[in-house]
Every structure is written in structure tokens, then in C-alpha cells.
Amino acid sequence: MITVELERVNGDYGFEVKDTLGHTVRIDTSPETGGENFGARPMQLLLMALAGCSGIDVLSILKKQRQDVKGYKMAVKGERESGVEPSLWKDIWVEFHIYGNVDEDKAKRAAELSIEKYCSVAATLRGAGANIKWTVTVHEEELKVKSEK
Known about the structure:
Elements: E1 5-10, E2 14-18, E3 24-27, H1 42-64, E4 68-80, E5 89-101, H2 104-118, H3 120-127, E6 131-139
Parallel strand pairs: 5-6
Antiparallel strand pairs: 1-2, 2-3, 4-5
């Protein structure tokens, strides 16, 4: 069994949640419902979890296939049900952006395996009724990393 611990640390709804290894995530609600933008919204965390879970899968598969991945980005967009409570994720679009010398067919297959077979977060969201669609774009040039000044 896995345990996470939540503590209110900011305003009315600003929480810090820690896992068993001490990693911390900040959670809050929107200012419209009393939050202070202290952290991510709980439903957004589900999309973040999908990106993380699937990202690990895709990169692991491509690494095993000896693909030369120089950079990796994802965008996950979601639309929730309207007019109902609870408002679940209805449609989710996942964009995979893979940079480097990577075979496009292998990249697409890795994404398909992740979303349809391996990613537990995707399976959980589908089990709750979400429709997940995805696209893969392979970029031959390296990902430009933003430098901080």
C-alpha cells in the first residue's frame, strides 16, 4: 500500500502533498473558488500524471530500440464534462514531440503502446470514460533549450 500525506500550508486551500520518499507537490483551487494560485489544480495533476507516465513509457521503449532521442516534449490538453458534478475528463489530446534521429514508425508505435497498453494513468482515465487521442511528431533538429538569465 502506498501512502501520501497532505497538509494545508497556504491560505484556505493551499496544500502540500508528500509521497513516501519526501517528494512534494503543491495543490490549490482556483481563485474563483477561494484559492491563491499556490499550486496545481487536482484535475490538472491528472493530465500531468498522464504526461509523466506516458513519457516514461515512450522514452523507455525508444531507448530499448536504440533510437537517438536528443529531446522530448509533450502537450496534454483536456476538456471536461460541462454542467455536471463531478466534472470528469471527457476528451484528452496528447501531443508527443520527439527530437533526434528517431524512426517515425517506432515513435508512433511507442506512443500507441504507452497510451493503449502500458500507461496506468491512461487506463485509469479511460476507465472513467475519457476518450484519449494522440499524435506524434518527430523533429530531426535538436530541441532548443531555453536558457535562464
